[in-house]
Write a structure and sequence with these properties.
Number of helices: 2
Oligomer: single chain
Strand content: 15-25%
CATH class: Alpha Beta
Helix content: 25-40%
Distance between the termini: 40 Å
Radius of gyration: 12 Å
Structural class: alpha+beta
CATH superfamily: Beta-grasp domain
Number of strands: 5
Mean pLDDT: 94
Largest sheet: 5 strands, mixed
């Protein structure tokens, strides 16, 4: 299956992209996707997205699947579907 991943703000700078198309096995989870993205984008991406000690996503980041936060779904165990859109969003300030 193919998944679109959209990057915003600092993550766009780290990856050098607005969007990736990632090929994953059927029944892959958001956790599987994050592992693939770490492999693809390297140490700087890993350090920004994951807690060093636990390897879990940093609490300030927002992960959306088709506009819905993974926090209101099944977290990292949320299964992805073909052609879904995953947005990785760092905190945004404004005023």
């Amino acid at each position: 299956m193919k998944v679109s991943v959209r990057y915003f703000a600092t993550l766009r700078e780290i990856t050098g992209k607005r969007e990736d198309k990632i090929e994953l096995q059927e029944n892959s989870t958001i956790g599987d996707l994050l592992n693939r993205l770490v492999e693809q984008h390297g140490a700087k991406f890993r350090e920004y997205v994951l807690e060093e000690k636990t390897g879990t996503p940093r609490a300030h980041l927002l992960f959306l699947i088709n506009g819905t936060s993974i926090n209101s779904l099944e977290g990292l165990s949320t299964r992805l579907t073909d052609d879904c859109v995953v947005a990785l969003m760092p905190p945004v300030g404004g005023g």
